[in-house]
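[recover] target loaded
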């Protein structure tokens, strides 16, 4: 069931995010020459590659490489950050089929811990 304003296969709601993560995980599993622990380790390693692409995009957006100049845009940075998130969620899915619950529990803990502490120098 897709919304008329979204393209086919594009997640339209947070629930669809988890369906997309499951579908991408299954697609990768199907085509993977590796399995088990090796597959998990390679997916975690893939995150490093994606983070490197974020760094490359930031350097390109700010023109920090004199040889390349302004080779990227901030839209490229946004896309690369999304790739990091997707890659992390798929690595998490590789580790546990309870991806959604695991992520939501952890997010709740981080949110509670972070928002319950007052930052130095801020008003109460």
């Amino acid at each position: 069931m897709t919304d008329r304003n979204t393209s086919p296969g594009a997640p339209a709601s947070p629930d669809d995010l988890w369906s997309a993560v499951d579908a991408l995980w299954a697609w990768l599993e199907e085509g993977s020459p590796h399995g088990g622990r090796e597959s998990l380790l390679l997916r975690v390693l893939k995150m490093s590659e994606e983070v490197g692409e974020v760094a490359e995009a930031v350097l390109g957006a700010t023109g920090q490489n004199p040889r390349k100049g302004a080779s990227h845009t901030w839209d490229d940075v946004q896309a690369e950050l999304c790739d990091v998130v997707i890659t992390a969620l798929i690595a998490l899915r590789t580790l546990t089929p309870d991806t959604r619950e695991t992520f939501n529990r952890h997010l709740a803990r981080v949110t509670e811990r972070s928002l319950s502490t007052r930052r130095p120098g801020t008003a109460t």
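[recover] notes: The CA atoms of residues 26 and 106 lie 23 Å apart.
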